[in-house]
Amino acid sequence: MLCIDELDASLHPQLAQVLVSMFTDPDINPHGAQIVFTTHDTHFIDNMNPARLTPEQVWFTQKDAQGVSDLFSLDEFPTRAEQNHARRYLSGRYGALPRLAPTQVRHLDRRPGATADMSRRHKRRPARSSEPADRNPTRKSQALGGDRGKHGRRILSRRVQPLL
Fold it and tell me: How far apart are CA 161 and CA 132, in angstroms?
């Protein structure tokens, strides 16, 4: 088993794709060695990529307000083969997107007057009152009848406590 944190940080996207495809090719990997990696590269789930990962191979993490991470699979969401999972992920369909308002990073810009400029340009949007079930894994599992996934299997969602 090969574990790599931030696969896309030091490799060209095409090299990263070749590395991952070597593990999924039974001719190159006859003994079934595994690769576990983290990435922010959505190319691995883009429907235009012939070697994209399958929904059961893709896992997301999302932190709650207390800093606890929730781990859940793309397979827990209703998906079709022709869907562009990368676009759906980036639009927020699956969650696991960073929630960061410009006001939260305002202090990082040290230019004189930058704080005032940012507050004029970015107005806070009202919070959503409810999310559709397919955007919220917890609501989705409830909509599917408790802790069962779309195929009747137990949902493998894990809650991970932060290390302090």
Answer: 26
Sequence-distant (6+) residues with CB within 8 A of 58 are 44, 45, 73, 74, 75, 85
Q: Are 76 and 140 in contact (CB under 8 A)?
A: yes
Q: Which two tokens stand for residue 12?
A: 């060209």
Q: In terms of pLDDT, which residue wins out, 127 or 48? A: 48
Question: 41: which residues sit within 8 A by CB, 6+ positions away?
Answer: 7, 8, 13, 16
What pLDDT sits at residue 86? 93
- Read off the pTM: 0.61
Mean pLDDT over each residue of the chain, to the nearest integer: 77
- Model pLDDT, residue 122: 47
93 token code pair: 């369909």
Cβ–Cβ under 8 Å, residues 73 and 55: yes
